[in-house]
Specification:
Elements (H helix, E strand, L loop, with lengths): L14 E2 L5 H11 L1 H14 L1 H6 L5 E13 L9 E17 L1 H68 L5 H27 L2 H7 L2 E2 L1 E5 L13 H11 L1 H21 L5 E13 L8 E12 L7 H68 L4 H35 L5 H8 L2 E8 L7
Parallel strand pairs: 1-4
Antiparallel strand pairs: 2-3, 3-6, 5-8, 6-7
Helix pairs in contact: 1-4, 2-4, 4-5, 4-8, 4-10, 7-9, 8-9, 9-10
Amino acid sequence: MFKAFLFVVALCASTISSAATLEEIYNLAVENDPELGAAQAVFLSRNEVVDQSRALIMPNIIVGGQTSDNKREFISGGLPTSEFNDHSWFAVLNQPVFRLDSWYRFQQSKNIQAEAMATFAAEQQALLVRVAESYFAILETEAALSASNAERDAVQRQLEQVQQRFDVGLVAITDVLESQAAFDSSTVNVIEAEGAQSSSFEPLVRLTGSVFNDINGLAENFPVRYPDPQNEDAWVQMALENNYQLAAARERLKTAERGLQLAKAGHYPTIDAQVQYGHSVSGGSNFLGEKIDQTSAILSMNVPIYQGGGVRSQVKAAGYDVEAAQKSLDLIQRQVVENTRNLYIAINTDVARVRARLRGIESSQSALDATQTGYEVGTRNIVDVLNAQRNLYLSQFQYASARHLYVLDTLRLKQIVGTLSPQDLYDLNQFIDNDIVVSRTTPTTR
């Protein structure tokens, strides 16, 4: 039995005024995401199939009746005209005794229900990832915007200094032109980054139905660790055992196998038992009497002899359905193994990348300091300074980007091995810093 996730429901407002955390956005998404809502409705619909198929093997009772007013006139014989009422009622109890088709359909419905539960659980996990992806996409574009702004501000200061030095004859006009070109290019980069940052807030509206203008950023002390256990095969084994898409595919195969049994049942006889009770009252002359009570018990058997080849064709079609379900299961299993191995390797790479990017910031800062000193004494030119500045801000952006990618890859790995839960997002939210506010930018033209 697949366990449904425990979701925390939050009140939804049309606009969120204060900076939102990852947990708050997720709680709103649980309540308002249309994709999850549609998946839940599909699950609830498919969940009814067991009750519907069980009804086919349970007894059923039918009660009916009728009444009629009659007028009888005799053409000859001198008998008087009579008016009378006939009425009757009956009750019928039907009980299937031997119906393999209904039994197989009931067993098949359990597999359909299990598949629906696994599919819905996969959708719940997908929501966790979609929320995290949308949230960290904003932080990613904010990091790019911050780097662009820092580069532009630094280039502007450099341009002002070069202009001053040119005015007193200390540098050539080429330095001024190089600085001006760099400033113009950095300004374009800022405009593009502002547009990307503003657009990155839009997916939150689709997820939550609310408009967000501010979110909180990721704390600097967020831990970056290698996967535990440090064993690729162990992660693959967990995925094979717990992946919800794989579990749904297994249930689809079982459903197809039950469908083959169901098709073959068309060759078998059926036996039904029936008990009837009837009561009728006639106001007219009747040689059996005016009131009749009748009780009967019936056991009927139907043996299919020839049905035009339809059952044989259904059996063949069901066999092909089993083959298709098996091939689909094989494909999904291979994809799960492949994706698990790729994500395991990716996270190990992410950890090394984050640490390398952090060292890269230190190296870029040292290189910039040395280049600026060299420019002051005349051993380096302005292009070297501008490139060194650009490298520093690029290193800062790459470090932030590497941390974001690590977070998402970690969640994706947990998703594919079937262990991702809301608690993972709540734990991650502990490292969302309320002092870091990312505000939506209004794109401007310059």
